[in-house]
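Notes to self after the call with IL:
- keep both proteins in one doc
- input above output, always
- annotate only the second one for now

Protein 1:
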Amino acid sequence: MIFSNMVLIPKCKSRVILFLWLLGITALLNGSAVEARIRRYKWEVKYDYKSPDCLKKLVITINGGTPGPTITAQQNDTIIVELTNGLLTENVAIHWHGIRQIGTPWFDGTEGVTQCPILPGTTFKYQFVVDRAGTYLYHAHYGMQREAGLYGSIIVGLPDGKSEPFTYDYDRNIILNDWYHKSTYEQAAGLSAIPFQWVGEPQSLLIHGRGKFNCSTLTTPSLDAGICNATNPDCEPFRLIAVPGKTYRLRISSLTALSALSFQIEGHNMTVVEADGHYVEPFVVQNLFLYSGETYSVLVKADQDPTRNYWITSNIVGRSAPNTPPGLGVFVYYPNHPRRSPPTTPPPPPLWNNTDPRLAQSHAIKARQGYIHTPPSRSDRVIVFLNTQNTINGNVRWSVNNVSFALPHTPYLIALKENLTHVFDQTPPPDGYDFQNYDIRIVQENRNATSSNGVYRLNFNSTVDIILQNANSMSLGTSETHPWHLHGHDFWVLGYGEGKFDMFNDPKKYNLVNPIMKNTVPVHPYGWTALRFRAANPGAWAFHCHIESHFYMGMGVVFAEGIDKVGKLPSSVMGCGETQGLYRP
């Protein structure tokens, strides 16, 4: 395994300790040799002009690139990222998506929940342990910066001597994204405006940072004649070189701002083996459906005609987006020329409004035999989250149980730990909605909601069930897919269903035998998804829709658990709200 862009040697004052470390002296843990390393990264976040889909715009980069550097580590390693904010006029924070932050809840990277933002010109040090092997992500968690290009992958391997329950020859990483030409500021201003201005469908789909916008469709002449250049090397298609007969592990992730996607490699089957860091009972797909925040590993064998190349495609599902071209890449059979186009047209995508295959994939994802973490047989608390679109004082908002989420000025973790009860609403949000009388399939006559920054306080070590209930939006006949992501935890996915959740009968259908554990899960149109997790990680944790505009518009909540067990907060996470003046770099 090759590790790049990092320093593996820890800072040790003692030459003896350093000498022993270099010799590979290991600590014995549970009878097996385990060597945990420290992996250091130095990043500068700044704006650069890039053309990921051939149209030049300002993009947030890490050390000049987007996607950012891949963090590569082994289980139980410590990651240290020294992040300098070079945005000049903009704050920043980075969330380590899928990393549970056990013992370090203040480094979860969620501005307003676990830390104050990183100010322009300052350097912030994140330090945490990657405690479980798998495929994870990192991305901005301040405003809507994620969709401006601030994202990347975290690949965590097993300790030396351990093996996975499947074999492959090569390991590759692909991040899927959608891409907008308007800045995040323009989009946020429209979402907050009266009248409401929706962000619309994306202009392009990117496969690992590369897409192709049709420059001839630009309707507004540009002062810069070169602003859209189809020959720009930045927008050369993503190419994956494959040796005939070899098997590839593709770690495929989605960090879309809006879109649900299908992914396929022309003429090749994909065997799903991992989801969100957990092994999956293998199953074969031609189209892999992904929702924002999800990660998968699939095995692909290069077993087709080696004299030609094949298309890699991503397409939008769940929304009608006729003007968004597919994301295109090339699966190149060595030694064919990488620039040789496949002789066929790209394969047709699944029907965008057919939910059946997407629901079937959700049902198919089970924990792999031999790697099953059995869930508790019953829960201590059940919370039902009705996903609705509402209005508040003329603004369009997304809500949970008719309550739209708003971040306080002082981060929750600091306020809870320091008992600053006056900085957020002490009234907890509701645990449910009017189940008997609410019709999920109609536009409600009363569309008004309230806004709150209250939290759900969970008893430490309790078992909590979450029922995500989808409903009609404020547009007739429209129920959107919402991918929900939980910080600080994995949860068991107990089941999916269509229509309104029946609290008396549907729990009898839960999968308590081999449910997969995940950190991100979709709730399908007019359907429900049931989750179970243990509130056993002290801290304050966001749970929210991973669509950028939806979370910005209030579709999220915060859970607080075991606050008395949280250690002393580093002063580096302070400096805003009631903590002004307490910041120490």
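Protein 2 (the one to annotate):
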Amino acid sequence: MQLACGMLAEARQVFDGMPSRSEATWGTMMGGLIDAGRPRGALALFRELWEEVGGDAAPRVVVVAVRAVTALGSACAGQQLHCCVAKTGMYEDQYLSCALIDMYNKCGQLDEARRVFDGMPQKSVVAWNSMLASYSLHGCSEEALDLYHSMCEGGVDIDQFTFSTMLRVFSRLGLLEHAKQAHAGLIQRGLPLDIVGNTALVDLYCKWGQMEDARNVFERMPIRNLISWNALIAGYGYHGMGQKAIEMFEELIAEGIAPNHVTFLAVLNACRFSGFVEEGKRIFQLMTQNQRTKPRAMHYACIIELFGQQGRLDEAYSMIRKAPFIPTANMWGALLTASRIHKNLQLARLAAEQLLAMEPQKTNNYVVLLNLYINSGRQTEASKVVDTLKRRGLCIHAACSWITVRKKDHRFFFKDSLHPQSSEIYRKLDSLLKEIKQLGYVAEENELLPDILPDEQKTSKVYHSERLAVAFGLISTSLSTTLRVTQCHRLCHDCHKVMKFVTQVTKREIVIRDGSRFHHFKLGTCSCGDYW
């Protein structure tokens, strides 16, 4: 009672005055010290206990000591405790082994955590979950996936925590089918997801363009929090479904839930991606009326890009000049993008100068400026930008696109010939290009592309990485399969045009997730409205 009320001195006085103390008493006192932010005091108390009883300490008390080491973040102290466990043969205690795994995980010692896990004679689902969480936390997605497969092959029933952990892994690796199968397994066993798991599932479906599935999960959630709403609103926005995002935002307000900065960013992004200028202005104005949600730089960047998308460059620049803080790189970047699209060289040069001063090592800023000069026929200025890149030791790295087919990732680079099916891929791509030319496709000229280095501009531009990935997808999947390609660079204009024509010819849907947004191509149109 005294520990729960924060009366540490009084609790210690009672503890010290006890004529005899059980191990439960020692554990309670140690736990109270840890909860009060004094893990060193808890370890000192454990040392006293160890001197009294030696190796006869109960495993549950050692668990509390491991908690103290975890809070302290000391791998050295943790290894000493681990030695005590090994010497006294306490490995059979599931709680203690899981506590050690958690301790090594939080100390960044994944190899030691795995050694404890592998040494357990019996592994409960909690032990499996602890090790999975360790891999997931440290970004070891492949290792987590391998362990998950071992778990399933061993007949261990996954629970809600397993699913919530693996959702992050599936999301990173783009394994949408794995997530669906795991979710179906939970439903079959009658195990409902908690709010964290459901929200993670909504977020996963949104990230991979499955908006109907995301909405179905959201509607069936018994309890929702603001994070759940934000995930769905953001998903609608990124996939060009601005009207639905705004409807969800209005529904959120109607239910009496107060939006936060993330909510406003999600709905402003939706307006930006869908070109809803007046709605964007209205929502931005709502933010300014509430002291708790005053617009930040990221919200200004959205509005700037929204104005820029509609060619209202004066209003976009005015937002930068009127901002109540020093404009950020994101704000200048939004103006540079708009100036590039609408070929306003004066504003573009101004924005580029500000960006290059803020981020002199960021290659993409130079690429945007290069594109602008090349498209305007200013070869002298373009050459100066290339010289600046070389002088600063920067280079345009060859970009990569990848597609997952039958649970395996296939990566492609510009003019890539490493894939075992290269000859088939190139034949398919050449055939597609012939077909789309008959429909009116004309290649874009004068654009520096992220796949191609400046010295290679005069070589063929038809074999960009995303085109190779799509061609491979077409020859490797059924006619009804939607192709999903991911790439780290911005989709070039010519590839964007090609994808629209390809969907007309093949009647396939193509979803490309590039460095800025999702592009949903269907029957010759794209969800971005040709602005990205």
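Annotation: Confidence is low (pLDDT under 50) at residues 449-456. The beta strands are 401-405, 408-412, 483-487, 510-513, 518-522, 525-526.
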